[in-house]
Amino acid sequence: TQLLEQSPQFLSIQEGENLTVYCNSSSVFSSLQWYRQEPGEGPVLLVTVVTGGEVKKLKRLTFQFGDARKDSSLHITAAQPGDTGLYLCAGAYFGNEKLTFGTGTRLTIIP
Amino acid sequence: DTGVSQDPRHKITKRGQNVTFRCDPISEHNRLYWYRQTLGQGPEFLTYFQNEAQLEKSRLLSDRFSAERPKGSFSTLEIQRTEQGDSAMYLCASSFGPKNTEAFFGQGTRLTVV
Q1: Does the structure show a pLDDT above 70 at B98?
Q2: What residues have CB less than 8 Å from A41, skipping those under 6 apart?
Q3: Which fold has domain A11-110?
Q4: How far is A99 from chain B (nearest CA, A)?
Q5: Whole-angstrom distance, CA of residue A11 vs CA of residue A28
Q6: Which of A20-24, A62-66, B7-11, B53-57 has the lowest mean pLDDT?
Q7: Is A65 exposed, middle or buried (0-12, 13-18, 19+ CB in 10 A)?
Q8: What are the chain A neighbours of B43 within 8 Å (beta carbons)?
Q9: A48 contact B CB<8A
C-alpha cells in the first residue's frame, strides 16, 4: 500500500507570515499534484510537478518536487486570509496511474 | 461552464434506501474517477474508468456500490441499502489520461444517511 503523508496536519499562523507544508511518500511518484479545497467544495488543482527537482511558482506559492520524486513541498510567502483552506497533495505512481491523496494540511490564516 | 458537474449537490436519505449520483466530466476527458471524502480526511479512491471500461475498483467499494459509465461520457455511482457509515462527500474527477494524471474535480455530492 502506498502511503502519502502530509505535515503538519493543522497550521494556524498570522497574516504576513511564511509557511511550508510537506508531502512525503516511500515510493517514487510519476507525477504529483497539489490541490486546495474549501469547505463543501471539490479540490481545485493548483499545480502539477513531474520532473525531479522541479520548482514551480504560482504568485506567492512555491512548489518543489524532490530530486528522488518521493516528496514535495509547498511554501507560501506572506500568507493572506484568502490562503485559508485544506491543502492536499496527490501522487500517481508508475504502473498505477490513479491519484492517491494525502490526508491534507488544514491551514488557517489569522487576519 | 465546461468543468466537471455533479448532481445532486446534497442528498439526505434514510438508512436502507438506494441512492444514485451522476457525474458529467469535462467533455474531452476520457478518464473518470470517483472518490469518497469524510470530514477531516483526504479523498479516498473508489474506482476509475477509461472511456466506458472500469479499470480499477478499491476494496472500499463493497458490493453495495456500483458505478457505470455506459457510453464513456457521464457516470453514475449507486449505493444500495445505504448505511450511516456511507455518509460522506462523493467526489468525481476527470482527466485527459492515461499519461496525463492531472485531474479536475466536481463540487461533490454530500450524502447524509439518517
Answers
A1: no
A2: B107, B108
A3: Immunoglobulin-like (2.60.40)
A4: 7
A5: 27
A6: B53-57
A7: buried
A8: 43, 88, 90, 101
A9: yes
Distance CA A90, CA A100 (A): 5
In chain A, domain spans: 11-110
Q: Which residue of B has its CA nearest to A34?
A: B102
Strand order in the sheet with B65-68: B5-7, B19-24, B75-79, B65-68
Tell me the pLDDT tens digit for each residue of A53-91: 999 999 999 999 999 999 999 999 999 999 999 999 999
> How close B56 comes to chain A (CA, Å)?
9
B8 residue type, one letter: P
Q: How far apart are CA A6 and CA A35, in angstroms?
A: 13
Cell numbers linked to A53: 527537482
What is the separation of C-alpha A3 from the centre of its chain, rounded to a whole number of angstroms?
15
pLDDT of A39 higher than 60? yes
What per-residue confidence (pLDDT) applies to B28?
Answer: 87
Distance CA A71, CA A42 (A): 24
* B33, B40, B105: residue with CB nearest A98: B33
Residue B99, pLDDT > 90, answer: no
